[in-house]
Each structure stands twice: as structure tokens, then as C-alpha cells.
Amino acid sequence: MKKITILVTIIIFGVITTAGSAHAGHRGHHHGGLLEGVIIGAGAAILGTAIINGITPPPRYERIYVNDGYDSDDDGYDRGDRGRWSVERVWVEPVYKERWIPGHYSRRGYWIPGRYHGVMIQEGYWETRRVWVRN
Length: 135
What we know:
By secondary structure, this protein is of the alpha+beta class. 30% of the residues lie in helices and 32% in strands. It has two domains: 1-19 and 33-61; 82-134, no CATH class.
């Protein structure tokens, strides 16, 4: 509700301050009215967004711990978080994309049937990962 109230207040204030008084006379006396109004409106929208985002606190995410004491791995009851972190080096396999090579004649005139050929997209690499090891 605060957001709407602040936004409406900013819009009303912007309209009141940017509205000019009526001028009798030739049109050429006042230059840049439309452009000036668009610029002021865009500035008011940006300022209003900054104010609304500054007032609203960021969402808080809390950790939820669920431990009923039952460990499904060994069909027994868990005695707590007994274990340690271990760092392992793991080889990540390279990534290949299968590419179709159509059938064709070789330089000597022999027919070579079509086939799929693996083209490497990403090379394999070693990666270190943290793994929880139970004692």
C-alpha cells in the first residue's frame, strides 16, 4: 500500500510542477514543451522507482533444517552430523557433438558411406569439489 501511495504522490506532484500556465498568443513563443515534458516524466519515473526500491527491504531467505533423527541410508537412526569435508579432484569428461558427414566419393573414386563424427565442443578438465564424508 505504501508503494501505491508514494507513486501516486510522485505522479501528482510531477503533474502539478510541470503543468505550465496558459499562454495566449502565438504558438511559437513556447519551444520544446513536449520534449521537456517527456524528459521530466522519465526523470520522475526513474526517481519514483529508486524511492520504491529503496524503501522495500530485500527478501530474507532463512535456512530450514529438518532432522528427525532417521537416516534412510542405513535404516537406522542418525547420531548427528559426524563427518568431515574432503576435497577431491574429479575428471570432467570432454563434451562431444555428433556431426553427420554425408556419403561421398574419395579421391581415388571409392564410395565412402555417410557416418557420424564426434566433434569436441569442450575439452575435459580436472575440477576440485568439496565432498562431505561421513565417519
